[in-house]
Here is the input.
Amino acid sequence: MPTSLTIENILDLDKYPIHDRENPTRGNIISHCKADLDKLMYCTIPAFVRPQALGEMAREASSLRKQAFDNNSRRNVYLQRKANPKLPKEHARNILSSTSTRMIAYDQIAENSPLKVFYHADEVRELIAAIVGAEVLYDNVDPYQPANYVCYDEGDRSSWHFDSDNSFTVTLMVQAAEIGGEFQMSPNARSDTDQNYSHVAQVLRGTRDETIVSVGREPGALCIFRGCNALHRVSEVRGNTMRIMGVFVYEREPGILGDPEINATIYGPRVA
Ligand SMILES: O=C(O)CCC(=O)C(=O)O
Ligand SMILES: [Fe+2]
Here is the structure.
């Protein structure tokens, strides 16, 4: 891995001149992405990261795979692991499904990793801020959360859920699975003011499949989505190629840390 990796080694700045605020191509990327995010609840920038940097990320994630925390659980869409006996069996809160992913935390990733160089680059953070309509964004300062690799081996999947903390989620497809590992979304499943429990339960029971879209992504694609209100899942991975996702956490306030109890469930007992 090169020791003095810069953002130009990771992104093709000729194709995506995001370092130049006056460049009309940057403006176009922002306006397209903003419009998609508003309308579809997600946007993607295809082939954003150079293949060589993706290769380095994939090699790093594979070499860290043995140290990853096997995050296997049964959970509801609100990321809770227990049913609520006061609510009916068929209530959305009481529908639990299995999830299994392999989490590689920020502290396990090399300082000079292309994943971290990408995450900490001002150009990237400022682009994302413009797309999500934030005046400024800050890096998360938790020891484990800011940038992760999430790996899916054969049989792994992430069941339907809403992301809890943030109004948007940022992912980078590092390596796709041979079969499966599809990112699916039911975009307007709830809103900030309406939990829409009956609709959510219908999606979970498979009776609202017409609301589900597949978000196609080739390796190198950056995806920003409204994971807080768009119900989403990753279908079961098949075949020998590990699905590797980079996941990034940006904040609207400086100095934000994760909740240690939640961290222990995501990254394992070593962080407790
Ligand atoms: O792996 C993905 O495509 C999305 C995973 C996910 O649900 C998330 O990062 O919140
Ligand atoms: Fe999610």
Remarks:
- Residues 178 and 239 are 6 Å apart (CA to CA).
- The radius of gyration is 18 Å.
- The mean pLDDT is 95.
